[in-house]
Q: What sequence folds into this?
């Protein structure tokens, strides 16, 4: 048991409980938080002890570390510390909604204007209010579009996505934090690329693809998109046009299940896609991929294929441990950090399918260079 002093009040943390979870349990629901995975950085606080927060400073700037800022959702102090709130407003930028378009039955394209410098493939944290925030990858390119584009999947019980779909309007202002993330185009111009995405994982992949073309990539680019059913694909025509305009791009859509009869448009043409398992398709279609640069992106709600498990993953793609899923497991997986055994809690993200494991083995066996995004 460790005692935390906050606003002249002592809060005792339970075993393995983070500072953020302890505060929320104690009734401090006004503390900003979002992903609870150390990614969105919305729960940053300040401590009076540098030693006890070092493990919770991964991803922060040197200036933030010097000021003894830390990620409260990742902090598990072993000795008593004093904690203070920080000014979230100083980390935020204001954006304006200029377009909101439904790309499919459950995916909204949000376009914003904001004074933000970013690299394609990075992500932003969007704030609904002072307590609710979510992270979304950028599908836009700063040299090609004068707006920020995000693809937001609507979840039935989603506090943020439901608000975006029904409550957010063109002209509204929204608080933005970021950009963050270190996953972007770094391949050699002649190196073959396999860019694969499931669902709204297309957003960062689209940003990376645009950046590769902008920088004159002339090696083969295999764009492989997966979905639960063919009616879940979106931007199909735009992607086909992009592939037609750039001969080095080969475009493939792979879906898992045939749509239910009552959900299918009888006139819909799904001939552009093939049915199958995306991993098996990769294994069969790309048997020899030594030297490829591979990027894979998917939402945490992608279809299950291999069971209901979550994994500890690191950039070397070794599985350190396995754990069952629970509602409290963090939602975002972005392993762009240098993670060691002691830092494993930072990368315990909610992977509600084992496709990541399968693709990881696939990369290992073919000596490829993987980069991953999970939204």
A:
């Amino acid at each position: 048991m460790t005692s935390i002093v906050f606003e002249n009040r002592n809060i005792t943390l339970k075993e393995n409980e983070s500072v953020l979870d302890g505060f929320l349990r104690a009734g401090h629901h006004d503390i900003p938080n979002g992903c609870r995975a150390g990614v969105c950085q919305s729960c940053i606080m300040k401590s009076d002890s540098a030693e006890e927060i070092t493990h919770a400073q991964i991803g922060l700037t040197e200036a933030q570390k010097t000021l003894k800022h830390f990620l409260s959702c990742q902090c598990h102090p072993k000795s008593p510390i004093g904690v203070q709130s920080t000014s979230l407003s100083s980390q935020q930028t204001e954006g304006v909604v200029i377009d909101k378009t439904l790309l499919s039955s459950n995916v909204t394209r949000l376009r914003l204007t904001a004074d933000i410098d970013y690299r394609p493939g990075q992500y932003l944290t969007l704030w609904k209010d002072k307590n609710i925030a979510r992270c979304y990858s950028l599908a836009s390119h700063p040299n090609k579009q004068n707006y920020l584009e995000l693809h937001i999947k609507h979840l039935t019980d989603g506090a943020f996505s439901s608000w975006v779909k029904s409550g957010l309007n063109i002209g509204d202002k929204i608080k933005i934090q970021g950009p963050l993330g270190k996953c972007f185009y770094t391949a050699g111009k002649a190196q073959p690329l396999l860019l694969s995405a499931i669902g709204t994982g297309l957003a960062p992949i689209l940003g990376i693809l645009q950046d590769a073309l902008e920088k004159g990539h002339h090696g083969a680019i295999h764009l492989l998109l997966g979905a639960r059913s063919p009616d879940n694909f979106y931007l199909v025509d735009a992607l086909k046009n992009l592939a037609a305009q750039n001969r080095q791009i080969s475009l493939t859509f792979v879906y898992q299940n045939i749509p239910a009869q009552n959900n299918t448009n009888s006139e819909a043409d799904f001939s552009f896609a093939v049915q199958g398992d995306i991993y098996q398709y990769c294994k069969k279609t790309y048997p020899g991929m030594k030297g490829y640069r591979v990027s894979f992106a998917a939402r945490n709600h992608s279809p299950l294929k291999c069971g209901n498990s979550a994994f500890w993953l690191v950039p070397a793609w070794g599985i350190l441990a396995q754990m069952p899923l629970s509602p409290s497991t963090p939602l975002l997986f972005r392993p762009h950090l240098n993670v060691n055994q002691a830092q494993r809690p930072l990368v315990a993200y909610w992977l509600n399918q084992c496709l990541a494991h399968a693709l990881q083995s696939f990369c290992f066996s073919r000596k490829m260079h993987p980069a991953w995004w999970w939204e």
